[in-house]
Amino acid sequence: MIAQILSATQTVILGVAACVIYFWGANWVLDRLLGGENATPNRENRRAAIRPWVFLFPALFFLSLYLIYPVFETFRLSFYNASGAEFVGISNFVWALGDPNFQQSVFNNLLWLIVVPSCATAFGLVIAVMADKLWWGNIAKSLIFLPMAISFIGASVIWKFVYDYRSGDSEQIGILNAIVQGLGFEPQVWIQIPFWNNFFLMAILIWIQTGFAMVILSAALRGIPEETLEAARIDGANDVQIFFNIMIPQIFPTILVVWTTITILVLKVFDIVLAMTNGQWDTQVLANLMFDWMVRGVDFGRSSTIALVIMIAVLPIMIWNIRQASKEEGTR
Amino acid sequence: MRMDLSRFFTHLILLLLVVVWTLPTLGLLVSSVRDKDQLSVSGWWSALTTTERTDQARTGTADIQVQENGQYVISGDLFDGDAAGREIQFFGVTNNTYNDNKAGDTITLKNGTALTVNADGSYRWVSDEPFETSRGQRVLYIAATPPRFTLENYEEVLESEGIGRSFINSFTVTIPATIIPILIAAFAAYALAWMQFPGRGILVALVVGLLVVPLQMSLIPILRLYNGVMPLFGAESKSYLGIWLAHTGFGLPLAIYLLRNYMASLPKEIMESARMDGASHFNIFTTMVLPLSFPALASFAIFQFLWVWNDLLVATVFLGNNDRQLVLTGRLRELIGSRGDNWEILTSGAFISIIVPLIVFFALQRYFVRGLLAGSVKGG
Predict the structure, then answer these.
(1) Torsion sign (Cα): A36, A37, A41, A43
(2) Residue B268, Cβ neighbours under 10 Å: how many?
(3) B171: closest CA among B334, B331, B324, B327?
(4) Which of these CATH numbers, 1.10.3720.10, 1.20.1260.10, 3.40.50.80, 3.20.20.70, describes B155-374?
(5) Mean pLDDT within A90-95
């Protein structure tokens, strides 16, 4: 254990040292070769042209190796068999279209994509508006923000306990069933009720992401000029009218950003499904199906195919983000 | 009056939402310090109340009988010396009658013997004939059990369930994976913010695009790469080095994006006057931009720390499931599978895994929020 801590510390020192040596060294070499006494206007220009790439090289190297190359490789592998050795054409895609688990996952993912971003954004917005009016609003915001720090797997344990079911006459120790029983209904095995169990899993992600939506939207709300709100009040608008007719249109771009951010997260989250049901009782989603085929099925072709489907789902948002960023870049 | 009413409802609804958002975590925390026997039979919200529990015990056997005044007596303690504050309220020897007899009563059993059980658990079983029982008499009782809080659950998960080991492993993974990307990203961010070169716009667009590439796309190619390359260097394919580098790669887009936006917002005048004075980019970066960017560096560090600490996917794929290297999230997942009904294990294990992020989160919330606001195009 001591050895492990030492090795981690050593890595930090080595990693930082390597970075420092590289950046400082490359800069020194560049100045030495093309600068100082050797400087000519021509060389000066070349030095200015090379330096950005010295700064960028390590980052580009990591980005290419860990993100760009894999995108193409995964695309290629989706046309290969389980071990990635033999070209099989589109048979992985044919398999996916006919596979009931895949169909189930696509259906469930659509549900997740509709429910989670809308609920998290709506809750976040309502809480942000209400909290800004009350003296204890900041405490409320901190408490609602707190789940953001908890891992999906930790959150799953927390909620598994909420949904816990005891059979027979034993006392219910899960709070949901205790409440249901207290109201005079039958306790249920919540995560095993097909279709509806999806919503109990979604609740976990909504619980985590509402804090995120709240923080971003709260900042946007504070950006609305006080005069605008004041003018509306003078014109006799009530709180509800102000909310729908002034606040929402004013912060709409931010709402869109929050929405898309949560949408992307929804497509990638697999931990919750893995921990709660592992896809049983009709709760499978694409990310967990992909994980299952990669780790348990060890079929790189099929899992690549599923990963590609997730990538395609993200693509529109990616293009939209790039456009927005390029627009901003243009104005700078 | 109408205003007051709407204000009242605002208070009420927000309070309700806060309660809904807080109760699940509170339940976990309370449960993790409860006695494990109480935890499994009563809800955590009743943790402070005395509960009535039905239990059973056996009296001593014929071996320990003594003769008193011509009678044979077996006596002892149903709690076996470990009352832990429990008090017997009712007792009996059959399933139908155990809530009929108050503690302190004497009942006559079928074979004519007399049994007395007191509230403190002591009993006295009297017979005119010598006892011959070799198993003792089963006694059912209802005992009032006071609430009991303990750290035993934590001791157990830390020592025998491997959470302690995983705690160290999580730190081993997280610290280098947080620090290494920062420097790499900072240089790149500076170049993208303040240097003029062809292709800069495309690179910025590339970084923005890479922000949202699902991790799922990277896993298989990198896994195959590690399987092929690591053995060439005599290393195992599932190693800490592999996961450090992977997290560095996956964290870079956000790091570059956050830092570039921040650096680009630094006042242009300082840069230009420094350039006029003949300072090189390298000097401007190390002596001015890097110190000025501290808030953005801190934001990213918190992000990356929380993300790596809470990650299960990358850890499972690149570090595997072997006991020596299992991180907290992986261990927790394993416990859900193997100890799914032992809530004392799950709750205390989960709490240990979330305590570090919670501390980081509360101590540095300001930077975290700032990072969120600056980087909100990324999906997690």
Answers:
(1) negative
(2) 10
(3) B327
(4) 1.10.3720.10
(5) 90
pTM value is: 0.86
How does DSSP assign B12-38, residue by residue? Answer: HHHHHHHHHHHHHHHHHHHHHTB-HHH
Domain assignments of chain A as residue spans, ordered by start: 2-77, 95-331
Is B378 in contact with B192 (CB distance < 8 Å)?
no
Please list every residue in chain B whose beta carbon sits closer than 8 Å to the beta carbon of residue A212. 372
Model-level ipTM above the cut of 0.90? no
CB distance B354–A68 less than 8 Å? Answer: no
Q: Is there a contact between A31 and B350 if contact means CB atoms under 8 Å apart?
A: no
Q: For residue B51, what are the contacts with CB-CB under 8 A and spacing of at least 6?
A: B38, B41, B42, B144, B145, B147
Domain boundaries, chain B: 51-145, 155-374
Rounded average pLDDT over A18-29: 85
Task: Write down the architecture of domain A95-331 according to CATH.
Answer: Orthogonal Bundle (1.10)
Residue B308 pLDDT class (50, 70, 90 cuts): very high
Chain A residues within 8 A of B300 when measuring between CB atoms: none
Over residues B55-88, the pLDDT tens digits come to 888 888 888 888 888 888 888 888 877 777 788 8
Residue of A nearest to B208 (CA): A322
B4 Cα to chain A: minimum distance (Å): 13
Q: DSSP for B202-263, please give it.
A: HHHHHHHHHHT--THHHHHHHHHHHHHHGGGGT--SS-HHHHHHHHHHHHHHHHHHHHHHHH
Backbone angles phi, psi at A131, to 5 degrees: -65, -30
Q: Rounded distance, CA B54 to CA B56, Å? A: 7
CB contact under 8 A, A74 and B221: yes
Q: Nearest chain A residue to B260 by CA: give it.
A: A329
Min CA distance, B112 vs chain A (Å)?
Answer: 34
Note the pLDDT tens digit of each residue in A193-238. 888 899 999 999 999 999 999 988 988 888 888 888 888 888 888 8
Return the residue in A6, A7, A10, A11 with the most chain B beta carbons within 10 A, the one to mutate for interface testing.
Answer: A11
